[in-house]
Amino acid sequence: MLPLNADRLEAFKIQRRFMNVNQLRVTRMKESLASHQQIFFHVLPLLFHANHSLMPGYLSKDCPSGVSDYSSNAATLRAARKLAKSFSMRKGVVYQVAGHSTYLMGSSGSIAQSNDNDFELWLCHRPELSEAALKLLRRKAQAVESWAADLGLEVHFFLMSARVLNPEQSSSCRV
Hints:
Blueprint (H helix, E strand, L loop, with lengths): L7 H24 L3 H16 L14 E3 L6 H10 L13 E9 L13 E7 L5 H20 L4 E7 L14
Parallel strand pairs: 1-2, 3-4
Antiparallel strand pairs: 2-3
Helix pairs in contact: 2-3
């Protein structure tokens, strides 16, 4: 919690420190996994952003997709092509944003992490998604959980409504 008199520069410094610690935590978690398991975390945000028919978890073109402010990097695209050789991000496609962020919860990447830990992930979605869209998103999350199990990972998704008081304050921590 920021003190009431914290100015914007101090708030920025605190946010930057948090993001640095979070990135170290995610890196530590990924490094603790076998190489065939690391691909899961490389493509995770992409799976919920692009909803591509060749990727794990694909159900139908009607499944909600799109993650706020998401952009893939070269490492993510290389990992995606290991799963589907012909995968590519279509340039110029405007995604209807269904999700605000994906958060890795719990002890993953911390000193408390052990090889027996499961991974709990929050999928923060737009609060106005229809019940039908939420049902598809839940089914997709279950399909991605099944794929993770095939990799030897125990993963649990929790769909969370992203009720943001001020949309300009919305941000995401990517895994």
